[in-house]
Design brief:
- This protein has helices spanning 17-30, 45-55, 64-88, 99-109, 114-125, 140-151, 163-179, 193-203; strands spanning 6-11, 35-39, 92-96, 132-137, 184-188.
- It is of the alpha/beta class.
- It has a 5-stranded parallel β-sheet, sandwiched between helices.
Length: 209
């Protein structure tokens, strides 16, 4: 049985990742591809337990290094318990966030540095990477408006951080795409949901059977 493909969907707050993840999974299934959908932080029992530690509580609950370590620990379990077994079964794995969120959020915006956070991943997960990472991008105003509609005033401890933090996240994603253009593709998330899904499929064209 051929190994499956691993695709991560990334982006800042309010860019439509959840909507597009479901649409992409449906589109791939329509092509006869077996799909497993997952998320980060989370995706395995151990990682889901860590998710609550990361996203709940007051803003100062963790210092940046502790936060990065928790994400790396959750990811290691997610890969071992969920992602690798699904790929070995021949499934395509679609993940709502993966390593590049840590690189952009904790590395670029959190001040730890992209390379230092990548080093944690090399240790914790043997630098296991997606076959393709698709980063949804919107103008700051539109993304923020979508996030407000979605969350109101009750965002999680990371999503509710100030605009300057989220601008640094977006800059981090762009830097990662410049460093790894074969793996990471920036996707325009403006327009109708169907249009964005078509862009995602186009960016996966060389991987599709």
């Amino acid at each position: 049985m051929a190994r499956g493909r691993f695709v991560s969907l990334e982006g800042g707050e309010g860019v439509g990742k959840s909507t597009q993840l479901a649409a992409l999974a449906e589109a791939l299934a329509g092509r006869g591809i077996a799909v497993h959908v997952t998320r980060e932080p989370g995706g395995s029992p151990g990682a889901e337990a860590i998710r609550a530690l990361l996203l709940e509580g007051e803003e100062g609950r963790w210092n940046p290094r502790a936060e990065a370590l928790l994400f790396a620990a959750a990811r290691s379990d997610h890969i071992e318990r969920t992602i690798r077994p699904a790929l070995d079964r021949g499934q395509w794995v679609l993940s709502d966030r993966f390593l590049d969120s840590s690189l952009a959020y904790q590395g670029a915006a959190g001040g730890l540095g992209i390379d230092r956070v990548r080093d944690l991943h090399r240790f914790g997960s043997d630098d296991f990477l997606p076959d393709r990472t698709l980063v949804l991008q919107l103008g700051d105003g539109e993304a923020a408006a979508r996030a407000r509609v979605r969350d109101g005033d009750a965002g999680d401890r990371i999503g509710s951080r100030p605009p300057a933090y989220h601008a640094a996240v977006e800059a981090g994603f762009r830097e990662i795409a410049e460093r790894e253009p074969q793996r990471v593709r920036l996707i325009d998330a403006s327009g109708t949901a169907a249009t964005v899904t078509a862009r995602l499929l186009y960016a996966l064209g060389d991987l599709l059977p």
